[in-house]
Write a structure and sequence with these properties.
2 domains; 150 residues; mainly alpha; DUF4219 domain-containing protein
């Protein structure tokens, strides 16, 4: 199986703002290079490889390579201040979990954010000088924000 070589860096550098937007684009980017699964699920790292079959050794080596590639993609797609938060992570999954917890928040933060977005949605009214298309755009944006955070 041929390995895909990533020659172009991810075009959007994450600076700590708008994580939902950046992460959705970045997830697709990683999927293109078959790296998302290793970031999302991780893999079982073994300290002792004695007694492993040749197939298992190849699989472990391939997972380690994917993990390094995924870490590299994450690290070059974030600013230095963001990198400092994940620099001690041991693998790509851990880096991603730290980013999610830091910039998207835990369940409590998500719940508060979602309540706020729902309240904004319920208060939406068409402005006097607003076209239907403009109002529809605001409604769609609100729905998308709720879906992203829900």
């Amino acid at each position: 199986m041929a390995t895909k070589v990533i020659t172009t860096p991810f075009p959007y550098t994450f600076n700590g703002e708008d994580f939902d937007y950046w992460s959705s684009l970045f997830e697709v980017w990683l999927k293109v290079f078959d790296l998302w699964k290793i970031v999302d699920e991780g893999f079982d790292e073994l300290e002792d490889e004695v007694g492993l079959s040749e197939a298992h050794q190849r699989s472990l080596k391939a997972n380690r390579k994917k993990d390094i590639d995924a870490c590299n993609q994450i690290n070059i797609a974030i600013e230095k201040a963001v990198y400092e938060k994940i620099s001690k992570a041991k693998n790509a999954k851990e880096e991603w979990q730290i980013l999610k917890k830091t910039y998207k928040g835990d369940d409590k933060v998500k719940k508060v954010r979602l309540q706020s977005l729902r309240l904004e949605f319920e208060k939406l009214q068409m402005k006097e000088n607003e076209s239907i298309d403009e109002f529809f755009e605001r409604v769609t944006l609100a729905i998308n924000q709720i879906a992203t955070n829900g």
